[in-house]
Amino acid sequence: MNNILLLGWLLTLELNLISANIYMHSPRGSNNRMNENTATRRNNNRMFDSQNNARGGYNVGDKKANAANNENDQYRMKFFQSGKEGDSEMMLQWTNQHGCGNDNPNDPMKLNCNLVLQFKCQDDIATAAPKNSYTLRNGQNTQTQQYTNPNKNENENQGYQRRNNNVDASKGLHESWQWYDACYRRERNKGLFTADQNLQKNNLGVDAAVATRQNPNKQRSGYECPEERDYYPYFHPTPWTDVAVLAHNSSICSYYKENSFNRRPYGECVEREGARRKSYSIANNPVACTEMEGEWVEYHSVLELATKYTTKRQCEGANRKQLTDRGIVYKWGKPYDVGKIVAHQSIEDACFVLPPPVDCKVAEWSRPNNLGDGLDGKPLHYTWKLPHFPSLKQKRCVFRLRYNISTDDYAPWSTDHSQNQVKQNNVVVKKSPVEQNPLVDIGANQALRLAINTAQFGRTFQDRSHVFFISPRPAEVADERKLINLNVRGKRGNIVQTYPAVEYDFVPKEMSIKDTDLVHIQWTGSNTHNNKAPGGDGQTGDAGEGTGGTDRHNLLELLDASQNFPRPIETASLYKSMNVVYNSINDKKYDTKNVAIQLASSGYYRCAKNADCGKYSIETKAALNPTIDGASPSYAGLITSFKKGTYHYVCTRNNNFTNRSQKGKLVVR
Known about the structure:
Blueprint lengths: L1 H11 L9 E5 L34 E2 L11 E2 L2 E3 L7 E9 L15 E12 L32 H11 L10 H9 L40 H5 L10 E7 L5 H7 L6 E5 L1 E2 L2 E2 L8 H6 L3 E5 L4 E2 L6 H6 L3 H4 L4 E5 L4 H5 L7 E5 L4 E4 L17 E6 L9 E12 L15 E3 L2 E4 L8 E3 L5 E3 L11 E4 L3 E4 L11 E7 L5 H4 L6 E3 L2 E4 L4 E6 L32 E3 L19 E6 L8 H9 L9 H4 L21 E8 L2 E6 L12 E6 L1
Parallel strand pairs: 4-23, 5-24, 7-15, 24-27, 26-32
Antiparallel strand pairs: 1-5, 2-3, 5-16, 6-7, 6-17, 8-11, 9-10, 12-14, 13-14, 17-22, 17-23, 18-19, 20-21, 24-25, 27-30, 28-31, 29-30, 31-32
């Protein structure tokens, strides 16, 4: 048992030292917002524990020109998956408050930090917000899913009833109810350093995984498991798939690669009630599991199941060099099948696709105490190569980003439970190496107090996206073609009103591609970014163009970046250089002028002439006002290649000289 606990500490302590605010800007991080018209979010514990300022985050996207009043009217970004040969790329952007990317011990801004990028996907279903405990959804209000504590002798049917009474289709959900229920019941890893914090037990008297040094009072946020949230790599199976670890030091990358759940199996205790699998166990290691008459089972992380291969020979025979070279690997074993766990079904050996190996590299440099750009003046970013799902099924997904920065006031890799504070009869008989707000004597007969909260002298901050799709490529997009996403970020307001979110801009702002590459132009926005009171510790207001609270975007060509007047469609070169292979409006091949009209109107118009698109034409449809208020804030867009050249473009709605710039540059070689 000691080895298990020590291993759990070794795998996780580095991430649980000190962290600071992180905000995702592309894809749009929610920071637990849903559709609030206020500057601050209404519920910090809606889906996850962000630990961020209440002002950050972006509302869920709307499909129509009016605010959505149900999940069917919310817009979910649709990204197309990588092919077996060609990559699909999406640029992720964020800001982190306390810097990263400097591990020089002689530098006054020396930092130990890590950023962990993960996603979670499942097969999409027709219903946007079903009443179940598993399907990803944004929610239709800002309330938290309920959870009722279990009774000690609860049977399976009573557990079902408790779940059914708790789960609400109108509330957001990222992790399953069963995931939190198992976390609530399972004993925490007692090999971890908890300093002088007093971790509360659950209502069953168990020192459970819902209490951590950062969360000693077992505060619940959605159905997130606090222990899994605070530690990486986690020492049990997790529903999250690793994308990358951006570390403060390249020397620890081999450790993260070897211990990522993407490549290393992790175990949990499986108990049964009759022939049915329980979805929980109190045991957190093999010895305790045996004592509970359970079975300790090691599971593999799963990109998706490969059900067409029913034997080990078929499964392993599906591996071809072309696929394995691209990180597409079929494996036979026990998949961590969340669907079966939710259904209390046994998980047998099966064929599945492993996630790609986790990427690990040194994090970009960023300045401490500043939510700004990197050393090169560009936004902090990572280019994600979207996965390839061999089933070609549409996936419903969410993205998670965690940020961590550690202290050197105690040794992060050699401080464990043995150095926790010990009390006897409420008297401290053994001190922790760090204590709450300690007094220090610097030798001048004057005690000085240090501002140290040991629950936060090691914090994990995070942000998550709203739900989005990863879909199979359209037939018009060849498997071998490289596909690059061009999106927008930001929300309505000036730089002070939006902070710590950002104002509008294109993502990426500058692109350099080949004339054989394809670009997917797409964006989303909200109708309720009014930024009203309460403003928290910042300014309210929604300075901008058009109707208050509304996000709108378009794309028109500029002659060069120094100008602000778009080129007329008739003389513009951008549209003439485009070869549109896919258009979300329909399959019709629109000519150059009509494509330009679509981009200029955010899809409100499809064409100029009634003869070409009927009621969607400029001739027939109600006139769009100059600030495009009548258009949707979201545009599913098109996929196109470009001829060689350099192109500049602008959003006429938001570009406001001396206030904000929303311009982009495209170099095609």
